[in-house]
Write a structure and sequence with these properties.
The complex is a heterodimer of chains A (359) and B (173). Chain A is of the alpha+beta class and 359 residues long. Chain A is built from 14 helices and 10 strands. Chain A folds into 2 domains: 250 residues, Glutamine synthetase/guanido kinase, catalytic domain (Creatine Kinase, Chain A, domain 2, 2-Layer Sandwich), CATH 3.30.590; 88 residues, no CATH class. In chain A, helix 4 crosses helix 13, helix 10 packs across helix 11 and helix 13 packs across helix 14. The longest helix of chain A has 29 residues. Classes of the chains: A alpha+beta (359), B mainly alpha (173).
Chain lengths: 359, 173
């Protein structure tokens, strides 16, 4: 398997199935682990980083069980490919932008990935479609167990798994769900929801994690505390709050349907119209309009589109994906033209296929 | 001993590790403060979330401690990886697993502030935890070996190499 094989399909977490998948895009868990016998990454010499990378690379065949796993040496990876992996949520932005010996291993179905020499020596992440945190935990603890048979993790009797930043010490675990909340944004209730989440020490982030702004009305909700609670408790804390937010979002959608049906239908239809006919369009506008269309499909206002198609478009219309899919590097102006062409092609074939591409 | 910058007695003895070579500074209280706040300004541009967090936490930690005590805590250096607590504070990242032991006093209030707890109750490595700390010593031994090679003390370097191999093979069983 090569990196270019990824672009032809999409990760399983985008397939739009699983419980509550109209609002919950994905459930994600990551574990931070470090080898006991090396300094943390920021203090490691280039030789240390090479050794860490080698040690962890040697553990990976054990994970495969006959399945394909793509191992990528990121030291020599082109910038466009790094960005491509960030857009697919397989690596963090920090991992893409850093330097030195580092790697990522990606499961063929993109259900999990392992980052080597990110902030910690090892970051394991598992992503499932819809609301399935228990399933994600079961899978990730299994992967963690397999690796731990081969290496000695840095572990402290009372502090647990030791991490480069004390914000992750203990379980080293971040549990998060990615939610699509367009109606709470439209009805201006989103801030209120966030404030109440912060009170129970849950963090809210945008589509691409720490420091990223919210795009396309996507929000990630995750635990902040990692010490003094069991992994099951941390999973439960997030899993318990998600149905509450889903309920708020559904109420807001019902309110919009009932109180301003014409306005909502108009908004959704116009968004769909622009996406199907625009000749040049920015990434930001695309996300914004796709968000309306996605809600329209979920509410039955658009009937000729499938959720997995829209989920994929959110990723495929991002800058690095467009360039990988078209096979050429493009400047922002050309990207906007290519993005509009891509959207017309993919959205028109779902309706009347004989509509001309250019008009 | 006199302060390197004036005639007052030197009460602060700072070891800076820059470029792998320890540099010793002997300063009076006034000049120590000046020295420490200077380097503070240089590094305050680090804008990462973690650094901001660490700064905030350190400020909270400072309640009830005098400037002198704080400066002393900042100068403390990890014998394993060589990072000073001050460096951690400005970067927001620790240097090695042993930092949690040697900076225990400084980190405890910080950890309590972030998590509200100081005891891990979750998953534990199935092979037990005793191996972890002896392996942490490998970080120090490798660093010392590198330094021995750099000063061409090959006898010491080979002793250290044997010691490293002994620990590595002992923990494989």
């Amino acid at each position: 398997m090569k990196i270019d094989d990824l672009k032809l399909k999409s990760g399983e977490w985008l397939r739009g199935s699983g419980p509550e998948s109209d609002i919950v895009i994905s459930s994600r868990i990551r574990l931070a682990r470090n080898l006991a016998d090396y300094p943390f990454v920021s203090r490691a010499s280039e030789a240390d980083r090479d050794h860490i990378e080698n040690t962890l690379h040697n553990c990976i065949p054990d994970l495969q069980e006959g399945k394909e796993l793509l191992y990528i040496d990121m030291k020599t990876l082109a910038e466009l490919d790094c960005q491509f992996l960030v857009e697919r949520h397989l690596i963090s932005r920090e991992h893409a932008e850093s330097t030195g010996a580092r790697a990522v291993a990606i499961d063929g179905h993109e259900r999990y990935s392992l980052m080597v020499n990110e902030e910690d020596h090892l970051r394991i992440q598992v992503m499932h479609s819809g609301l399935d945190l228990e399933g994600a935990w079961e899978q990730i603890t299994g992967i963690d167990d397999l690796i731990e048979q081969k290496v000695t993790y840095a572990f402290h009797e009372s502090l647990g798994y030791l991490t480069a930043c004390p914000t992750n010490v203990g379980t080293g675990m971040r549990v998060s769900v990615m939610l699509h909340l367009p109606a709470l944004v439209l009805t201006r209730q989103i801030e209120k929801v966030f404030r109440s989440l912060q009170k129970i020490s849950l963090a809210v982030r945008g589509l691409y994690g720490e420091g990223s702004q919210s795009m396309g009305d996507f929000y990630q909700i995750s635990n902040q505390i990692t010490l003094g609670r069991t992994e099951a408790d941390l999973v439960k804390q997030v899993a318990d709050i998600v149905p509450v937010i889903i309920d708020y979002e559904r109420q807001a959608r019902e309110f919009l349907i009932k109180e301003s049906h014409e306005n909502l239908h108009d908004r959704v239809s116009r968004a769909y119209g622009i996406l199907r006919t625009a000749q040049t369009i920015s990434s930001e506008e695309t996300m914004h309009l796709l968000s309306s269309v996605r809600m329209g499909v979920n509410l039955g206002l658009i009937n000729d589109l499938e959720i997995p198609t829209i989920n994929e478009l959110f990723i495929q219309t991002q800058p690095a994906h467009l360039q990988k899919l078209s096979g050429t590097e493009l400047d922002p102006t050309d990207r906007n033209i290519e993005r509009a062409r891509f959207l017309r092609r993919h959205l028109q074939k779902h309706t009347n296929g004989d509509e001309p591409e250019q008009n | 001993m006199k302060c390197q910058k004036c005639d007052k007695p030197a009460t602060f003895h700072i070891t800076e590790l820059t470029g792998g070579k320890p540099q010793e500074l002997h300063l009076c209280e006034d000049h120590a403060r000046e020295y420490l706040t200077q380097s503070n300004d240089e590094q305050s541009t680090v804008g990462s979330m973690a650094a901001v967090l660490a700064q905030q936490m350190a400020q909270q930690m400072a309640v009830g401690q005098t400037a002198e005590e704080l400066a002393q805590l900042d100068q403390q250096v990890c014998p394993v990886c060589g990072i000073s607590f001050y460096e951690f504070r400005s970067q927001g990242r620790l240097g090695c697993p042993f930092d949690y032991t040697c900076f225990k006093k400084q980190l405890e209030p910080l950890i309590l502030n972030i998590h509200g707890e100081t005891e891990h109750v979750g998953k534990r490595p199935s092979r037990g935890v005793s191996g972890s700390e002896s392996r942490t010593q490998l970080i120090r031994l490798r660093r010392e070996m590198k330094e021995a090679v750099a000063r061409e003390d090959y006898e010491r370097a080979s002793e250290l190499r044997d010691e490293i191999q002994r620990i590595q093979s002992a923990s494989k069983d």
